[in-house]
Amino acid sequence: MRKPKSLRDLLRSSSDAELLWKFQTADPELQGPIASELGRRKCKEAVPSLRARLSAADARMREAAAEALGRIGDPSAGDDLLALFEDYTQPEAVRDTCAFALGHMRFERAMNALVSALTDSSRTVRICAAAALAAIRRGEAREDLELISLVEQDSEVREAMKRAAASLDGRAQRARFPAPPAAEPDREQAFALTPPPSNVGALAPPRLATPGKMEQLKPPTETQDVNEQQEVPESIRSVEVPRDQPTPRRTLPKIFNDLPKAAA
Questions:
Q1: SS3 for the chain, per residue?
Q2: What is the pLDDT of residue 257?
Q3: Fewer beta carbons under 10 A from the terminal one: N or C of the chain?
Q4: Would you state the pLDDT for residue 236?
């Protein structure tokens, strides 16, 4: 006798059109798993429906919709997620999932709210805010993370803030020592005559050195050396976020690993 398919198998075997139809017509308890599958597929056609679910009566539906929108990464949902994140009447599971989503889509307009959330009363919101700041990759958040970590009482939250700050160290240094603008090539150097190739006869016209090649001969400046010494870590180590009751979002405890990795 053939074993019946699980809900996960049924959802994964459905087409995007079928999932979108089921998302609109299924019972509320099934809409959360469907939203998660739409997010896993990064189905942009589902963004309008998912944005509408951010105001659903069921907190678990709001949480699943926020996570799916973060995975899809469409910035049109950024302001809706930010508004939900800043609503302090929301359950912490909804707010930390919104922080996760904002970090996943690297929504820079959320920077101020995420920095403020580093002192939130919820420890999971503080951890997710630190992870989101690390994912957005704006070096100016490093100082806030370092200062607040000095007064953070929870050891796990403090460690998460330190790791997030360390991941931004290279970006902060680059902001402090920006690369100088490209210098205008010297006319005499740019049009200096270079010897002809060995395989060209003596009557061949001389070649002109291009400005690009002359730029390569210039020694690096002191500021450029400072920039080249700064290295951005390729990834952020995982930080376990202890959770109480499993929900669609809470099955993803390694918040740092779930967020996108920044290019060095």
A1: CCCCCCHHHHHHCCCHHHHHHHHHHCCHHHHHHHHHHHHHHCCHHHHHHHHHHCCCCCHHHHHHHHHHHHHHCCHHHHHHHHHHHCCCCCCHHHHHHHHHHHHHCCCHHHHHHHHHHHHCCCHHHHHHHHHHHHHHCCCCHHHHHHHHHHHCCCHHHHHHHHHHHHHCHHHHHHHHCCCCCCCCCCHHHHCCEECCCCCCCCCCCCEECCHHHHHHHCCCCHHHHHHHHCCCCCCCCCCECCCCCCCCHHHCCEHHHHCCCCCC
A2: 58
A3: N
A4: 34
Q: Where are the domains of the chain?
A: 1-72, 77-178+222-264
pLDDT at 7: 87
* Tens digits of residue pLDDT in 128-158: 999 999 999 888 899 999 999 999 999 999 9
Q: What is the pLDDT of residue 123?
A: 94
Which regions of the chain are under pLDDT 50?
172-180, 183-194, 196, 200-253, 262-264
> Which CATH fold would you assign to the domain 1-72?
Leucine-rich Repeat Variant (1.25.10)
